[in-house]
Specification:
Alpha-Beta Plaits, Ubiquitin-like (UB roll), 3 domains, 5-stranded mixed β-sheet, 4-stranded antiparallel β-sheet, 11 helices, globular
Length: 389
């Protein structure tokens, strides 16, 4: 199972996440593609630095023109929704900003819809979140862990004046998750905290992992008690049964069109799987079973999506265990263009080879050929590549 671990050694901020992911091998092209789709007047400068003798990357996102930092949450949400980003990347970005909006709403006593971001609404912060979401999507990750970030201490300047550190927004975003004590200074920013809380499963220590690459993202400040680095470890985890939630509802009053919308919303919210099945309900009424499979961290988002898009007044939840193969996503070149192929292995032995259907459908439409021809070409291209390896 391809896994990312984010370890805030000295802190975490949006630019540090970008830097750590790039240093760990995420493709710069994915970052540029996402920012291009947003059409933000920003540039990204990446430089090599050394922190405590450790080679790292530092990223600086610069706005191309003077701009206000005050943006309502709804404006950022619409900007992301209309950018045409890959589905997973768009959902990750929306999740991070939605979490920030709820946190700011609690602090200021207003609904999330009325929240107006200040520093977090700046172009560089938007670029940090969307850029990092694009990099995570490009890596084809199946699981992300986050270790406790340092709390910092003291005060910091903000649009509202002096505020305590950790910032109130950081505290609200990380509510329910541990922070570790540290020296003074703002070590964990609200943006970095939102990425950690919205995208990762909490872990107290480094989980079992066969490390394939490591990256270090450096912050601007230098601390006397810790290197100001965010470490990103990418690797694989052994196949184990993982605890999941099955969420279900019986429905007899929702049209098939809206059922399909609810299923897609559950998947977009982070469900590992979702399904619709026919059933017979009380009084002999025909109905449908709407179900989803979700991890602990994704359960609240998936439940919210099912409630929002369906007519159910309640959801059943049951614990199950899921065992998965080790998975790898590779890109092969076919006569029709590049196609991603998912490889499934058990203890290193290859068991399944499955081209990504949406890639095949897109390429088939572009060249006017049958989808099954592209699928066959992708499998053949992978087999040819594997035999030469």
């Amino acid at each position: 199972m391809k896994t990312l671990v984010l370890e805030p050694v000295g802190g975490i901020a949006g630019d540090m996440v970008l830097a750590a992911l790039l240093h760990a091998g995420a493709p710069r092209a994915a970052l540029d593609d996402g920012l291009g789709k947003l059409r933000l007047p920003v540039s990204v400068e990446v430089s090599d630095v050394e922190v405590s003798g450790i080679r790292a990357l530092h990223v600086e996102v610069r706005a191309g023109r003077e701009e206000h930092h005050h943006r309502p949450w709804r404006e950022i949400r619409e900007l992301i929704a209309g950018a045409g980003l890959p589905q997973k990347a768009a959902q990750l970005a929306q999740d991070a900003f939605a979490l920030l909006a709820r946190a700011e709403g609690r602090i200021h006593g207003v609904p999330p819809e009325q929240v107006e971001f200040h520093e977090v609404g700046a172009l560089d912060s938007i670029a940090d979140v969307v850029g990092a979401a694009m990099l995570i999507d490009a890596l084809g990750l199946e699981r992300i862990y986050g270790l406790p970030p340092p709390s910092g201490s003291g005060t910091a300047q903000s649009a509202h004046g002096l505020i305590p550190v950790p910032a109130p927004a950081t505290v609200e975003v990380l509510r329910g998750r541990p922070m570790k004590p540290s020296g003074p200074g703002e070590r964990t920013t609200p943006t970095g905290a939102a990425m950690l809380a919205a995208w990762t499963q909490p872990a107290d220590v480094l989980p079992e992992l066969t490390v394939e690459s490591a990256g270090y993202g450096a912050g601007k400040r230098r601390w006397p008690d810790a290197p100001n680095l965010l470490r990103a470890l990418i690797g694989t985890q052994p196949v184990k049964a993982e605890s999941m939630w099955v969420l279900e509802a019986n429905l007899d009053d929702l049209s098939p069109q809206l059922l399909a919308v609810a299923l897609e919303a559950a998947l977009a919210a982070g469900a590992a799987d979702a399904w619709i099945a026919p059933l017979t309900m009380k009084k002999g009424r025909p109905g449908h079973l709407l179900g989803a499979l979700a991890s602990d961290s994704a359960r609240p988002r998936v439940e919210a999506a099912l409630f929002r898009e369906s007519s159910t007044l309640g959801l059943r939840a049951a614990r199950v265990e899921r065992t998965t193969l080790e998975r790898e996503l590779v890109t092969v070149q076919t006569q029709y263009g590049p196609v991603q192929v998912k490889i499934g292995r058990l203890q290193g032995r290859e068991l399944n080879v499955a081209p990504e259907f949406e890639d095949c459908r897109r390429v088939a439409a572009l060249h006017g050929v049958a989808v099954k021809e592209v699928i066959a070409a992708a499998v053949a291209a992978y087999r040819g590549t594997a035999s030469r390896a």
